[in-house]
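Q: Major Facilitator Superfamily protein, please. Structure only.
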Amino acid sequence: MRTVLRRPDFRLLFAALVASMAAESVLLLALAVWVKDLTGSDSMAGATIFAVIAPMALAPLVGWVVDRYRRRPFFIAANLVAAVLLGPLLTVRDRSDVWVIYVVAALYGLSYITLTAVLNGLIRHLVPPDLLADANGVLQTVRQGLRLIGPLAGAGVYAAVGGWLLVLLAMTGFLVAAAVVGRLHVREGTSSRPGRRGPSELGAGLRHLTGEPALRRALLGYGLGSLVMGFTESLIFAYVDLGLHRDAAFVGVLVMVQGIGGLVGGLFSAAVVRRFGEVGALAAGVTFFGPAALALAYPRLWLGVVALLLAGLSLPLTMVGLNTLIQRRTPPRLLGRVTAASEALVSGPQALSIGTGALLVGVFDYRLLFALVGAVTTAAGLYLWRGRGLSAPVAGPVRIPSPRQPADDGVLSRGGA
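A: Structure for Major Facilitator Superfamily protein:
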């Protein structure tokens, strides 16, 4: 990690991302707590996260737009737009305004897709292939480390002052990120050459994902786990309420505990990628989520702490493995579309599971649902582990595959890479 942080350009991008990730960490959980406080409903609180993920259906269009513009100015514009989108939250006063939170959450989810697609391309442009795992590991370490203070601080500020201050803090974070990246000097052309602008170009990212064996395996396994992982967004509120008999704000404490596990996972994620390959790291992350969910089926605080530590450990391994695999196995001109398509393929099932979980938690015992999550994610992790040889560890830079049948408009033909 120290090697990649010695690069001045990456350090500047890193500083910008710290600001934007801090904004996310104090706000996202607080939105769900805000809805829970206004409505008293666990399902409606969990539906807030569903609203954030639902715009993934537009991912192919977002990826196509991202690939047609330079990464740096697009990243600046996306952060500025994210700051503006949070403004309507300042008008929320009571239960009748909950719809405003949902609308803003959905718009923020759309901006998140955009920022993720741009960021993957920007990192790939700044960092050589052999340091991509380190760069992704550094960012995941910070993201998970912020879970130690961000959600708890956000819940504390909300309880003491109200949501308006959280909104202002988050807006400031995105504005700072835009300003810092504005100082980054990057020589780049547009990422996509002129050509057809129809369904063929929009679907190029999905064709690449399905045509590249390691990416296909990664998305199938992770997508299977995502079908039930989203249940936990609503289940955690029921676990705190019915199992631990505590207020909804205590969810922030558990997320902080999860951040400790995430910090450890982030620190070691690059080493895991180098030892087991990208698919191996992804497999380890998904598998660790299984016993964590099974432990939460038994409501004891000490066991919940262990479970959240293990769940936190799984997150950076999963994300570093997947992001590094995408960056290494995708031509730069397709990276926006491939990143957006992968987000849709993972977050689509997750959005469905969040919505389903919000309904099921009102019908079935939350402990039974946690057990189901544990069984399915363990199976998904074992499926990924069997395919770890598709991305065997390498010592040097990885060759980015080229399309089998390159089209003259710069779009992969059907069949992938």
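A: Brief note, in case it's useful. The chain has two domains: 4-183, 200-390.
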